[in-house]
């Protein structure tokens, strides 16, 4: 169906006009509420207390979701919401990495509170249209398109007239539908998902950005926790935001020159240093594939190992030299000098419904190269890039999918699964054809794909109930925590990273704390106290990006000259000062780096208590699968036997020569699990929590978060 035919079939369900006012110092002080059950549309004024305590972005999402739901609200109940918000810094164009949005909902995978950080144009365009956040509630009985017209200041809801399902086509159709001409395409931001989100719990959202050089729609992902599944459960097909254009100071900041000065300084660093550091402009985040392999941190065969002889076949230089188009401004927001959103142009698909089509593939990012590559025993970028494309357009998180398929493959090789149970798919490590077919099955809602699309946690339950699998073994090798699949780093040899994964509010995602190099490689965290301090500071510091509408990559993926000589090089103090300066320059505030952490502490503790209100958020919920902590199987131990024997002798005080292999594995497990429990004690104490992981009343008072509704939840647990 062409665009003219789609326009002819459009059925408008609701139109609502609003009074637009310019932003003031990064805020509109209004949020947009849409209920897709009733088509109610209204704006809400942001209370002063909400602005003070929750700042923006993820903070606004958590506050609005708390108010909209009850402790028993399920992910597919009408009252569950999806909230999308940037932050006060989001949308400026004078500093890199300022186009982020935060998406918050109750997760179908974890039943707790999920947040996901995503790039693209929609978040800033929502702000420029007049709203600090968008609340989506209700469930429609028909597929809907929501149009936020920031140019003419109206909101429209109309019935889907027959747009395509999958994001790479849907984005193009909607851009052509709403853009007045090709030049106008840059003024449109779209949220959508794809076919797999309708048939699984692991659906994600795609946020578009317009590639002005290629003149194509490109995609960034809000990947974690099944947010796309919630989106399609509400029968939302897409949301479109359109603005008149982006000019230099739509945030109406307090001190534009202060921001511009820091931006110029940072751009100079990128220009002079990136080629000698991470090569983000040439490789994107995939630059660390070979680095992780060199340090035995690259997940291989369901996190059994941290390296492989064939890892050289997915070295990041191959992406730079063979696949990525270089020399184009690959930024997912205007003005970002890091230019790390790499793309593979004219990639010809070999499988699936779009076989033979030449497409642009966004990525692969590091997580995708590792998750769809080494973790599945697939060391072939053609196969990885094909999987990357289909995950994106189908609306599947590549991190979640990679970890899920790796679990399936290990179960297959251990006899828990076979061809009869998988519908004929030989899901062994390295079988890229079977892995791709499984992904296509998820999108079609067919065969074993219906089981795979439930995620690791529910697959464990299914395999025990229906296939007689050993629950203990599955719990040991199933790389999920709190119901969320692990992102792609091997944490066995870094106790701090184990905490950085397992103690997260939402589940094991590296955006809270990535401490592997500090802990394992550089040995900067030798004591429990040092680890606890890092597991306090870095989750709070990284939370701050989610309050602001910022990307974390410009913080630490290029470092200034002289950073190693500073007193805290791991914090990159010059860049921290950039962020404090920019926040103050946007908002007219006068915070320091300590208040930055307190802003995050308030929101972080709120999310912890939100999870407690839902029946989670306690010490037992911070448990980890043993493979994240140590070797599960004989082959796993034997592959690093010299390392493990030395640790038993020197760290645990146990003579390994007197033990059988199984006894060594058991002794190592006791030692490592005990150390993790000691880490929990140290981190909880540093964060101001009880030994059960509950924020104390005294700590909440200290940080100014002793709200009555929070006190009601935690008082019985003190």
UniProtKB/TrEMBL annotation:
Transmembrane segments: none annotated. It holds the Pfam family AFOR_C. GO terms for molecular function: 4 iron, 4 sulfur cluster binding; electron transfer activity; metal ion binding; oxidoreductase activity, acting on the aldehyde or oxo group of donors, iron-sulfur protein as acceptor. The keyword Secreted does not apply. It comes from the Bacteria. Residues 27-245 form the Aldehyde ferredoxin oxidoreductase N-terminal domain. Keywords: 4Fe-4S, Iron, Iron-sulfur, Metal-binding, Oxidoreductase. InterPro entries: Ald_Fedxn_OxRdtase_dom2, Ald_Fedxn_OxRdtase_dom3, Ald_Fedxn_OxRdtase_N, Ald_Fedxn_OxRdtase_N_sf, OxRdtase_Ald_Fedxn_C, Tungsten_al_ferr_oxy-like_C, W-dependent_AOR. Its cofactor is tungstopterin; [4Fe-4S] cluster. Belongs to the AOR/FOR family. This is Aldehyde:ferredoxin oxidoreductase.
